[in-house]
Amino acid sequence: MSDYNFAYLDEQTKRMIRRAILKGLAIPGYQVPFASREMPMPYGWGTGGVQVSAAVLTPEDRFKVIDQGADDTTNAVSIRRFFEKTAGVAVTEATTEASVIQTRHRIPEAPLREDQILVYQVPIPEPLRFLEPSEVETRKMHSLEEYGLMHVKLYEDISQHGAIATAYAYPVKVEGRYVMDPSPIPKFDNPKLEMAGIQLFGAGREQRIYAVPPYTHVVSLDFDDYPFEPTKADHACDLCGATDSYLDELIMDDAGGRMFMCSDTDYCGTRCAAGHCGAQGTPLAEDAA
Amino acid sequence: MQAHALEGGFTNAPIDAARAFRGLMTAMARPGTICDVSGATAPAPLSVAAGTAILTLCDPDTPIYLGAACDTQDVRDWITFQTGAPFAPADKAMFAVGGWDDLPLAKFAIGTAEYPDRSATLIVEMPELSSHGATLSGPGIKDTASLSLPDCAAFQANAMLFPLGLDFIFTCADRLAALPRTTRVR
Amino acid sequence: MYVAVKGGERAIDHAHAWLAEERRGDRDVAELGVDQIREQMTLAVNRVMAEGSLYDPDLAALAIKQSRGDLIEAIFLIRAYRTTLPRFGGSNPVDTAAMACDRRVSATFKDAPGGQVLGPTFDYTHRLLDFKLAADGEVAEMPQTEPNAGETPHIMGFLDREDLIQSEPAGAEKPDDLTRSPLELPASRALRLQALTRGDEGFILGMAYSTQRGYARNHAFVAELRIGAVAVEMDIPELGFAIDIGEITLTECETVNQFTGSKTEPPQFTRGYGLVFGMAERKAISMALVDRALRWKELGEDNLGAPAQDEEFVLYHADNIQATGFLEHIKLPHYVDFQSELELIRKLRREAQAGSQAGEQAEGKGPSGGSLTGKMKEGVAS
């Protein structure tokens, strides 16, 4: 590890990122521009989250990385290894044991505590981007708090489909001011955005950092007569039997047979270890492997 | 330049700065929470916490304003040697360090409508820092918090500017707390 | 009973091992040396240096070897290495008038002081595969001659003296650095040129070509294209003067473009500029055309809505490392997002089917009337 500075980035870069994080916390939901650096992993693969984690980690931390809720997805493995190697931090797969959690596309099922930090990898930080491609224009809209375009988009969804047709990266309004992209988490996770932990969002390629401090008001956009609904597959987890967790759907055979299991692998494993068992799970006593 | 400009810096910069930043970040994310920070020993009258905050956040890209009581040759030499940060008048400063009465609040940058982050962060040296005083609420605070603030009206006026405004770090010995523009003060 | 798929760590290790084996190829064939790549694949090395923004032929050659010849991957390796390098200072601007030119051509004057020097160009080769190279790459000795003595003056200088071309006074301010501060729009010309010179050659070429075909046509003449070595000097404050810290090869292209003018301003030609590390004239000419197209506002031209005039479009999409990373990330797992879309589409289809079965009495399904923004629930803090 002596080949690298602690947590890979040089100190001047970390200072620049740290200043951006502090301003992000002071202006919840506002996207702070920062001079993102080329990292030894590709843009779009979590370079924003990695830079934020590098600026936040201390040697005392215990680091967890999830992708799609799972600790053993290849990109999560790759990022966890990167920090084991460059920062020498301890790592864990247990949500409750982690002090810093870097995530792609999920918020863990277990509620985060005040002493925990959640770092999101963000591909497109601008919630208005797919409605207005120009950065100059969207920046102006945020400055004027002019979010009519978003309202019209949601309204058109309802006119066409009878429901808001956004299932993930569902836009939220933070502390009554900035409309924010919560990163491509399923809308099931949106209610968890109001939490006790510190949430930091890093978009490397797009050069933006933003933040949601603990206990900040985060409201998913909706209409009085079409209220926001967090949804998940209408099943219980086939491994642990949980009915309150977000589920992955697996195709099991050529006939299209399906099974459902928790996307949060730690949540599922913890439940199984505690003796819970779903329809296709392995009862605890039978198998210790 | 005095020899002691060379002293009092971080002994292990990457690690000291990482730990100090966690304190600063916790303070900014949880207004009213008092955090211990250490690692730097700046020349008097700067506190350990103020010196540590400066080494953690400042470099040649961040002009600093020094309040009158802090504006000594020793302090200037130390900041220059340790960080390379240039000194600037209040309206050009990204950071300021000084006692409450030494900081001309109205002159600091509060950001622009399109870039509210381009606002100054003021490090306010305090004679004491405790969880007794004004009542705070807003982002980062579960219900309410309390903090010994040097003023009330100034912070109320600052919060009215949101999303523009100044952000404050209060330092005393080796402890600090913070007050971002979002905090409502009673 | 189902056992969850595990083994991300092992899969990664095995993939890396396989990759290393594929890179090496058939072990009966001699291993390729980095020095061979540096000396015999120079244009690839040049492109990696230009788009990697790091002038180091040895490292660029190593990156090409490591990336199995995938130049964008090699550029990525160089960029990632570059960000870890400490920065000791900035050089003085290089003086391309003092360039030792290997090649120097003008399309606007038949001859000019310094002459037309073809140099090592593919331009007039017949593109016929040379099967002799497959057997034996040795080349005959090249006839030698004395290099031109003295400086080769810029062709633009002759137009400048007659006031026929817009003047381009030297800027006093130190330009921003694209790699050190976030891109902000509108960008200064210095920042635009930085983005273009490290931008993807194919993208810049396509943009330039589109201007030639009529999307914001600006009628470019290559006033001068020069390739050669220039000295890099740096001020050393302790010494009080600049010292020579090395030499780099550059390609510079200056274009003369259609003139502007008005009743009050006499007509003048306008300029486009390209400057690229190494021998990279396709890139340098492309850069000059795109630079010129992006200058429409300062030259008082109309916005024709052409892609090459759109600063935001060009600057945000020119970087192949950003582009390739984001493009390729869609092969990463997205099953959480996809699952939420699956649920949504199933729900919408269920409701649609239920609706059509229920009959046709319902009309105009949508949020009930009233002011839209007024009805939108706002997350206002109490």
Describe the structure in your own words.
The complex is a heterotrimer of chains A (289), B (186) and C (382). By secondary structure, chain A is of the alpha/beta class. Chain A has 2 domains: 11-220, 3-Layer(aba) Sandwich (Rossmann fold); 232-281, no CATH class. Chain A has helices spanning 11-26, 47-56, 74-87, 135-144, 148-161, 265-273, and strands at residues 32-33, 62-67, 90-91, 100-104, 117-121, 172-174, 178-180, 198-203, 208-212, 218-220, 247-251, 258-262. In chain A, a hairpin with a 6-residue loop joins β11 and β12. Chain B has 186 residues and is of the alpha/beta class. In chain B, the strands form 2 sheets. Chain B has a 6-stranded mixed beta sheet with strand order 1-8-7-4-3-2, covered by helices on one side. In chain B, strands 6-5-9 form a 3-stranded antiparallel beta sheet. Chain B is globular and about 45 Å long. Chain B starts with 12 loop residues before the first helix and ends with a strand. The relative contact order of chain B is 0.19. Chain C is an alpha+beta fold and 382 residues long. Chain C folds into 3 domains: 10-82, no CATH class; 96-120 and 151-168 and 180-328, no CATH class; 335-381. Helix content of chain C is 38%, strand content 14%. Chain C is built from 14 helices and 4 strands. Chain C has helices at 8-24, 34-40, 42-52, 57-66, 71-82, 131-135, 155-161, 189-197, 201-212, 281-294, 311-317, 320-328, 335-357, 372-375; strands at residues 100-105, 221-236, 241-260, 268-277. Chain C has a 4-stranded antiparallel beta sheet. The chains are: A alpha/beta (289), B alpha/beta (186), C alpha+beta (382). Chains A and C meet through α3, α5, β6 and β11 of A and α1, α5, α12, α13 and α14 of C. Chain C: Residues 353-382 are annotated as: Disordered. Chain C: InterPro entries: PhnI. Chain C: This is Alpha-D-ribose 1-methylphosphonate 5-triphosphate synthase subunit PhnI. Chain C: It comes from Sulfitobacter litoralis.
